[in-house]
Amino acid sequence: MNNSSDFINWSEPHCSKDALTDTYGWVMQFLLAVLAFTCLIGKRFCEPRYARRPWLIWFYDTSKQGLGALIIHAANVWLSPHMTGNPCTWYIVNFMLDSTLGLLIIWAGIRLAQYCARVYDIPLINFGEYGKPPMCAAWICQCVLYAALATFAKSVLALVLRLPPIVAVLSTLKLSPVSDPRLELAVVMLIIPFFINILIFWVTDNFLMYRPRGVSSKIKTKVRYQSIKKDKSGSEDEEHSADERLLGASV
Questions:
Q1: Which of 7, 75, 231, 240 is most buried, most CB within 10 Å of its CB?
Q2: In this structure, are residues 48 and 222 in contact, taking their beta carbons and an 8 Å threshold?
Q3: pLDDT per position as a tens digit, 128-149
Q4: Is 96 exposed, middle or buried (0-12, 13-18, 19+ CB in 10 A)?
């Protein structure tokens, strides 16, 4: 069998230039967004009851991640057709880089922001902390900062993919054979991103959650419950002693 029929060559695009933004492409993107959002809801119910976030805090945390994912996804959809070769291939290459190197850049930016928040006393940029009661201003500041981090990470990776040596290496890649363009689009925009997003969204949500430094929430909760239990036992002893004194007086 001819080798050209065994693999899809980079120079022989199966997806058309507008495949990512036609009706079928938008349906794939919508399904991916719904599945990713469902994954974040499921993660909240997987959290221990003592550490489960209220719905407002959960929304504040996940909306930042959703905004960043939207920025990166929109950039990938716009960039892929403008690059030489198969736009579906370029999309999955961008997606894989965003899920690895891009996530590392965002993680470093979050840690830097948390460090600056502690050192320079800027609580508004301490990711996951919104005050008591939660303040909308803190959420907006963190959304803007996270969007800036996502934009920076995407810009760096987009510039890297424009380097001639990188393009030369990627242009030699071959993909597994997919004869149907619609199936190819579903693989690169729904199937592969769905399974990777389960991991990426889960990990990123842990980055964005507020975690007390020093003593864990579980330890604090146990101490609180023990003190409540002790108070209850003490009050019961007092009640028993009062009853005994009452009975003694009546005798």
A1: 75
A2: no
A3: 889 888 999 999 999 999 999 9
A4: middle
